[in-house]
Amino acid sequence: MRVLCLALMIVCTRTLAAQTVRGQLVDSISRSPLHGAFLTLLDAEGLERGRAITDAAGQFVMQAPAPGTYRLRSKRIGFRPFVSAPLVLRMGETTTYNTAVDPIPIPLKEVVVAGEQQCDVAAGASMAVLWEEIREALAAVAWTSRGSGYWYELNHFEREVTTGGRRVGRDSVWQQVGYHQVPFRSAPALQLMLTGYVVVEDDGWSYYGPDADVLLSDIFLRTHCFETRAAKGLVGLGFTPARGRNLPDIKGTLWVDPDNAELRYLEFTYTRIPEGLNAPKAGGRVEFMRVPNGAWIVRDWVIRMPVARVVPGAYTTGAPRVAGYREAGGSAVQIKTENGTVVYRADAAPSPPLSPAQPQDSLSTSP
Which sign does the torsion angle of CA 290, 221, 209, 255 carry? Predict the structure, then answer.
């Protein structure tokens, strides 16, 4: 008991002695508060040590893990990235830092040139601009999903469909509610690099889709090549596996609204599926949304996995063929802050839950 009390006392002491930076961001032109701006606290080596999103008044609070010299990096879609001068944070002290951030005067549709190709996402001019906006949105999605200050009500579903997309039987639907809910979660980027996005296991095949952390990782950027695209009134950052990548992987596009630079959705398909399975419709879609308080969420998601079987016959080789697909996904119904403020509510009424929630990192189907 004495050891436990001592540990608690140490934790409390450290919390009380935390070094804090607080402040406000405003638009340099209108001088209005810059709400929903994503900030990171960088140490002297440039490593991230803290994250925050500005509130409706453009204000933020962050704690550093130890005394030292740090910089604040801020980014909000539609505004230029900003890095502060060095800030010296001393033990137990609070430092105030206020600044104005410049808006980007040119919309993405006038900057991004479709067809630019690079295996270094920051190498091309228009690609670098597009990636800057996408990266900050993904970082905010990752930060929001890990935060404890949001209460989620999520609807999940699983269904069988034919190769033509017609539903077979009834959907299996269940609901998941509470704090610390992660709507869409993947395996770590290192695991995906080593084993691929489709893994053959004793009880079936597991299909993985990339979450925000995977898409932001250096591993993903090193193992994929990129291309700027334009379609359906959107601009996109397409990606394909790098040359020499022989494991099951994904190719797809992150689509952005060129008028306001907001990330809309990710769509992807699987490549090099085991056993040479030809399943062009196997893949997924993840839709993103910024809610009024500035936080970013995964609003809807789905992964489509092939259901394959060997069809006997005189002209078959014994290789499996796609007989249909299993779709698994879900959507956010409602999201609230700790004080009960609703930051998002779906327009449509949720389907009634039919079974208890079964959170999982991957989705499996038998070949």
Answer: positive
Distance spanning both ends of the chain, measured CA to CA: 54
Cβ atoms of 198 and 207 within 8 Å: the answer is yes
Please list, in sequence order, all residues whose beta carbon lies within 8 angstroms of the beta carbon of residue 71, skipping any fewer than 6 positions away. 41, 42, 83, 84, 85, 86, 87
Q: Which of 75, 59, 125 is nearest to 261 (CA)?
A: 75
- How far apart, in whole angstroms, are the C-alpha atoms of residue 367 and residue 204? 6
Backbone phi, psi, residue 247, to 5°: -80, 160
Convert the pLDDT of each residue in 62-95 to its tens digit.
999 999 999 999 877 778 788 999 999 999 899 9
Q: What is the pLDDT of residues 335-362, one digit of tens each?
A: 888 888 888 898 754 443 333 333 333 4
- What are residue 177's DSSP bridge partners? 153
pLDDT band, very low/low/confident/very high, at 313 (cuts 50, 70, 90) = low
Q: How far apart are CA 121 and CA 132, in angstroms?
A: 10
> Within 172-264, where are the H helices?
189-195, 212-216, 218-222
The pLDDT mean for the chain works out to 83
- For 115, 218, 240, 309, the CA distances from 160, given in Å and listed in that order, are 37, 35, 28, 15
Question: How do strand 59-64 and strand 48-53 relate by DSSP bridges?
Answer: unpaired
Mind giving me the DSSP string for 26-51? EETTT--B-TT-EEEEE-TTS-EEEE
Residue 104's pLDDT band (cuts 50, 70, 90) = confident
Q: Contact 324/160 with Cβ under 8 angstroms?
A: yes
Specify the pTM.
0.78
Distances (CA, A) of 218 to 172, 263, 266, 324: 37, 20, 18, 35
Residues with Cβ within 8 Å of 274's Cβ and at least 6 positions away in sequence, in order, are 198, 200, 205, 248, 367
Q: What is the largest CA-CA distance in the chain?
A: 79
